[in-house]
Amino acid sequence: MNLLAPVRRDRVLAELPQHLRKEAALHVRRDFHPRVTCACQEHRTGTVGFKISKVIVVGDLSVGKTCLINRFCKDTFDKNYKATIGVDFEMERFEVLGIPFSLQLWDTAGQERFKCIASTYYRGAQAIIIVFNLNDVASLEHTKQWLADALKENDPSSVLLFLVGSKKDLSTPAQYVLMERDALKVAQEMKAEYWAVSSLTGENVREFFFRVAALTFEANVLAELEKSGARRIGDVVRINSDDNNLYLTASKKKPTCCL
Ligand SMILES: Nc1nc2c(ncn2[C@@H]2O[C@H](COP(=O)(O)OP(=O)(O)OP(=O)(O)O)[C@@H](O)[C@H]2O)c(=O)[nH]1
Ligand SMILES: [Mg+2]
Predict the structure, then answer these.
(1) Where does it sit, as one GO cellular component term (predicted)?
(2) Given 140, 187, 199, 236, which is the most exposed site by the fewest CB atoms within 10 A?
(3) What ipTM does the predicted assembly reach?
(4) 60 alpha carbon – ligand 1 mean position (Å)
């Protein structure tokens, strides 16, 4: 893979992609954080343009993790089940607000016998995608355990969480409504952003990964700004301490400028 090849035109993000459900979103701002927009305009994003952010995808066997990644990265869908053995990964390059940004998508095995190998790849993730099957309530219940395992290897205070219901094409509207109600509750408990997708039809797949790329990028730039001391003392820059953040955890002081 050539890291220097131009970014595909359909991987260019000029605006913040929106959440699916406001009840379970990482934040509900319409635009990128003003500091991020400002830093990108001035090319003050530190190492973000050169960084590859790691995203891990976990969940029960056969919920559709591999199909989800393949639909987005290769625009393909295979109706035959081929279990992932250990892990697999795909690299996807974006341009966000004019800055190159790459996501490394780690597709892990859901089968118990491969879990041990897969879990050795959990460390250092900037985002965790927990997938369940919208037509299988047990797979939703198991997401809590998948999350707990993934968090053992990562910093819970900085990692972004996404709870994704798969195989939306297989549920009737009435079944979907019931499942979504439960899934939103789980997402809120986890402080995860909720999505529902179909890799067969492609519904919401692109929107979802664009959101992952945008929020991971935004968190990275904010962390860089914080690290580089480009903030004023007492002006805490944290993605999870924003006014519009539903999962508010810390007290905050509103930024008054983009520095
Ligand atoms: N109808 C439908 N079938 C799907 C969808 N996504 C995946 N599948 C099917 O579900 C089965 C399992 O999909 P995979 O993507 O291999 O599942 P996985 O989560 O990667 O499984 P492991 O690698 O064992 O953990 C395959 O037969 C897919 O064709 C979807 O959106 N709709
Ligand atoms: Mg797989």
Answers:
(1) cilium
(2) 236
(3) 0.99
(4) 10
